[in-house]
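Deviation from plan, reported transparently: zinc ion complex.
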Amino acid sequence: MATSQSNPKPIDPKGLTACPECDLLIQKTTPKSGVKGLCPRCKCMLFHTKKDSVERTLILSLAGLILFLPAMVLPIMTLNAMGIERTSNILQGITTLFQDDFHLVAILVLLTTVIVPFLKLLLLFYVSISVRFKVNLGNPALAFRSYKRLDEWGMLEVYMLGILVSITKLTDLAQVSYDIGLFCFVFLLIITLFSSVTLDKQQYWSLIGRNVSTKNG
Ligand SMILES: [Zn+2]
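Because the crystal trials were delayed, the predicted structure below was used instead.
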């Protein structure tokens, strides 16, 4: 695709794309970070890459992976009712659901709150490392496709909503205090949301494609 800079390279017929507005054939290029691409004829915006998408997504996914274990195992809240104190973390909550015969709910919570969010961060970290440092280990294209498929299944925000509702209801019955696990979970949720915002899918695909051509070439 065309950028604001002129492209002196000869035209490769395989690497052409058409402007969606005026159908002008334009040579595809690997878009640089934070760049707008305009059609040279009609000035329609062809792409607008996010600034430092790979670096920001890499740091956020790494921070999410570091924060994941504390968010799952540290106590979220302490309940104090008639002198009896009880703390609970996310994994204990899932175990309790299993013990109380809510097997399907327990499996759903395990999938949407633990397994999928962790896999998403891991895949995003792996793909970001691959494209940032041009490492050709494994299959980043497959990993990125899997990440996009899993995107709809991670529901940390729904679980967060559940925690907030529980806290509101429990305050009538017992004394509730927040613990460090809740803050880790909130940070994990924010990091996961921001990693989706900083991720520039078009730029990632373009960089994955460039790595594959370098590998094959
Ligand atoms: Zn055009």
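The chain has two domains: 13-48, 53-216. We consider this an acceptable substitute for the interim report.
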